[in-house]
Amino acid sequence: DGGITQSPKYLFRKEGQNVTLSCEQNLNHDAMYWYRQDPGQGLRLIYYSQIVNDFQKGDIAEGYSVSREKKESFPLTVTSAQKNPTAFYLCASSMGQILNTEAFFGQGTRLTVV
Amino acid sequence: GENVEQHPSTLSVQEGDSAVIKCTYSDSASNYFPWYKQELGKGPQLIIDIRSNVGEKKDQRIAVTLNKTAKHFSLHITETQPEDSAVYFCAATEGHSGGGADGLTFGKGTHLIIQP
Question: What average pLDDT does range A92-106 have in this prediction?
Answer without folding.
Answer: 78
